[in-house]
Amino acid sequence: MHEALLFALVAVLAFLAGLALPLLRGHFRRRALQAQIEEAKREAERLRQEALLSAQKEIQEMRAREEQRLRRWEAELTQLEERLRQREDRLGKKSHYLEMVEDALRRDEAELERLIEMGQKLLAEERELLERLSGFTQEEAKEYLLKLVEAESERYFAKKIAEVERRTRQEAERRARRILADALQRLALDYVEEATVTAVPLPSEEYKGRIIGRDGRNIRTFEALTGVEVLVDDTPEVVVLSSFHPIRREVARLALERLLEDGRIHPARIEEMVRKAKDQVEAVIREQGEKAAMEVGVELPDELIQLLGRLHFRQSYGQNQLRHAVEVSFIARMLAEELGIDPRPAKRAGLLHDIGKALDHEVEGPHALIGADLVKRYGEPWPIVNAIAAHHGQVEPATITAVLIQAADALSAARPGARVETYERYIQRLADLEKLARAYPQVKEAYALQAGREVRVILRPEKTTDEMAAKLAYDIARRIEEELQYPGEIKVTVIRQTQYTETAR
């Protein structure tokens, strides 16, 4: 029985424990929740205090900035008020001065009217006295004086007209010389020597065998892909690339240098390097064309930009053709400004005047006409087309722009130092000039002067007359144009002198 009571007691206790556990759990949960709420309130209060302090600090900074800006405004307003006060003082002084000037002018006007009235009376009296003394009436005296003045005026104005014509010619020559001198002084560019070969240094002599390859297959592949002749001669550690096409020669140089750096030289590698070199040269052409157009300040179609950039690799007598085009554009623009006309067509035509040289290796004909056809195809106006076609005289210049391009092209090419010749070519050109002039039987001697820009011809006086000398100068100049190649202009001076000598004994 005790066991049954004990069992029942345990059962009751277990029942009571089952009822009390949820209550305890709820109590502890409420206490934890109240603690969290209190903690949240304290955190919210802390955040509120921090936000309040931050807002107060920001308000103080804004107030300080605004006060500083207000102080600057007050200083500026004070300065402005001071300037306005000074200006008002100056205006007051000027107003006072103008009032004094106005009073003086009124007095002078009254005095002038009095003098005019007095002068009119004196003139009437003098007129009556002159009529009595001369025996002429006023109308008769006018007619007589007009005849005298007319005769004198004819002589005076004839003399003045001659003097004005002389001064006008002198002024025109002086101004032309000044314009040309300004153009040359303001534009002086350096140029490199013209070349048809390029020397590429080798790391060592053994690379010549690699370049040639087995049975010459490497060098044949390289020459076929680039269109350039490769000269592997006895010069130590140097290979020469020869071609009259400058772009092909540049592609070959870049490709060969890359092959030498890589060390692997075989037909497939050669083809890859040539392709990369062509891409690099095309990028340089594009960059140089855009740079030139930007330097001059003109906008061009992409096709003309590409053709213009090809002139970067072209030289004429050592003068870089792209720099020459830029220089011609600058000179033509300055000449147009000096003449008071629109400089934009002149500088555009100057930049494009030699663009035909970009294709003269592919197209037959004079580069001026090739260039004119090119720009016409890309929509350039007729004055630009005419200026390009006429700059070497293949067609007649029809606008003042065309004449300016001719002058600018001659200035850029003919000024001292613009074009450089090799020593052999220079000597040969002088010899050809003198030989051509001496070919005439009337010529006693001929001398090439000023680096070949003038040839001075001494005639045999007993075989010529003055009229024949003039004709001979014309014939020599035309023959030079037809037979010789030269930069700029050549002046032909023919000298005929007759001397008589006697001896007194």
Quick summary of this structure?
The chain is mostly helical and 505 residues long. The chain is 70% helix and 7% strand.
Would you mind describing this structure in some detail?
This protein has 505 residues and is mainly alpha-helical. Among the domains are: 197-420, Orthogonal Bundle (Hypothetical protein af1432), CATH 1.10.3210; 423-495, 2-Layer Sandwich (Alpha-Beta Plaits), CATH 3.30.70. The protein has 14 helices and eight strands. A three-stranded antiparallel beta sheet has the order 1-3-2, with helices on one face. It has a three-stranded mixed beta sheet with strand order 6-7-8, covered by helices on one side. Helix 6 (267-296) runs parallel beside helix 8.
CATH class of one domain: Mainly Alpha
Strand order of the largest sheet: 1-3-2
Residue stretches low in confidence (pLDDT < 50, at least 5 long) are 188-194
* Average predicted local confidence, pLDDT: 80
Number of helices: 14
Beta-strand share of residues: 5-15%
**Separation of termini?**
194 Å
